[in-house]
Amino acid sequence: MTADFELSHLISKRAASRQTSHFSRGPPPKDTPPGFKAAEKFIPLHWGTPNEGFFPIESIDVNVVDHPFQASLGNSLTNASLEALSISGQDSKNQNYTKVSIKKHSSDPDALDLAHGLQYSEVKGTPELLKFTREFITRTHKPNYEEWDTITSNGAGEGLNKVVEAILDPGDVVLVEEFTFTPFLQNIRNVGGVPVPIKLNLSHDSEGLDIEYLTDLLENWEELKPGLSKPKALYTIPTGQNPTGLTQSIGLRRKVYALAEKYDFFIIEDDPYGYLTLPSFQKPSSTIKLDNYLTVEEYLKDHLTPSYLTIDSKGSVIRVETFSKLFAPGLRLGFIVAHERIIEVMTKYSEIVVRSSSGTSQTILTNVIKHAFGGVDGWLNWILKMRATYSHRKDILLNTIYESKAYKSGYIDVIDPHAGMFASVIINFPSGTDIEAKIKLLIFKFLHYGVGVVPGINMAADKEFSKERGAFFRITYAPAPNDQVLTEGGELMMKAIVDFFEKDFEF
Ligand SMILES: Cc1ncc(COP(=O)(O)O)c(C=O)c1O
């Protein structure tokens, strides 16, 4: 614990004063009688932890694939992008899996065994998983100061709630991107906070956050936002932003960080998508080339946009990570990287709320990463395969759009994302259009054609503030089962748009 955390004054009063206690903790050190020495070993008659002999599971065997959609290699219908390919050394129909056997007891100190994993465990996360998170961040986005730490969360959703608990008191303001992951707005309001939207630049070559708008707002806060306290934090999804798909360059991040230093606020960096870096659109071939991956070094050096952590020198950045998009959402597992004082107050909160992340999830993830993928670089190799698959899917979907009449007639623009799962289709309504009304109608058109998309305006922090910029739809290439369905979805969306334009924006 460090007493000299420069930003201690920004921790919420609730978090700073939170006490925790546990009935099985020993007496306070100040009561220690002279000459006392605890026995080296003692027999546990105190904790209500069932001995692992009571656990009904003796071992778990996990079969791990080598590539996303591997099972479809022999089945052309599941994922056409991988159809007719074989991974070297494997028969596509009788494919091999890497088997990870998790036993009740293991002598390997880094392998989380079931005796520990299925037991009540450390609030911050098991030491094995915490060690991985530290090594992973050191390899990918090392903070520019020493006193940083990590804590596990039950996914980014719960991680974000830990953040608001740590820093927000009633009336505190959080700046948010005007189109954002709206569930977080409820986390802010739930603790009495006030979200205030920041303009985004919405075009295919923009970086999202409008730095001029942000600078002006901060410079003239009292005048522009009378009655509101100065912002305590900026919440941003800087890479493959949800919903727009936009990515902030490191240059923009430096400018935003400088504002955070000058105006004394935290940057909450929510980054579920950043590792899925994507090259610009290229006309897709019908198959993914499985032997054409980047090396980890190339990826880290030239492709991964550095996190705000890498420019943070004092603990202004609170980074929220998740395993939902890279491993599986059902794990409900993620982690937070922040100054150790922030992690300390989050740990106290967890002690009375979630206690710890799921032991089963931590056990499976830790063992799969260590034994199937081979540790930090192996995990990065898996991410490289994910990104290649996403990149292919993105190009498949965008190709249908670029080839469409709607695009060629100038009815729409597209944001080709540099990372993540989302692209945006911007509708070029003639000036003077009642965008709100027409977007509502267009939604019915999409429903009529049978294609699901998210109206950008549904993800506005303040619909009135954003109504002029709300003429876009978020689309994703993540859930479709194969390239064919993806293509069909893109084509239907484009047909619906042409139909709408040709009917003069009436249903
Ligand atoms: C920006 C953003 N933050 C947080 C989350 C929640 O993620 P998790 O599944 O890890 O709770 C999502 C999920 O879609 C998201 O898009």
UniProtKB/TrEMBL annotation:
Ordered alphabetically, the record's keywords are: Aminotransferase, Pyridoxal phosphate, Transferase
Q: Does the keyword Transferase apply?
A: yes
Question: Which residue numbers delimit the Aminotransferase class I/classII large domain?
Answer: 103-484
| Family matches, as InterPro entries | Aminotransferase_I/II_large (IPR004839), Class-I_PLP-dep_aminotransf (IPR050859), PyrdxlP-dep_Trfase (IPR015424), PyrdxlP-dep_Trfase_major (IPR015421)
Provide the cofactor list for this protein.
Answer: pyridoxal 5'-phosphate
Superkingdom classification of source: Eukaryota
One GO biological process from the UniProt record?
Answer: lysine biosynthetic process via aminoadipic acid
- What GO molecular function terms would the record report? 2-aminoadipate transaminase activity; aromatic-amino-acid transaminase activity; pyridoxal phosphate binding
Question: CDD domains this protein is in?
Answer: AAT_like
Q: Where is this region: Disordered?
A: 16-35
Database matches in SUPFAM superfamilies:
PLP-dependent transferases
Family to which this protein belongs: Belongs to the class-I pyridoxal-phosphate-dependent aminotransferase family.
**Protein name as it appears in the record:** Aminotransferase class I/classII large domain-containing protein
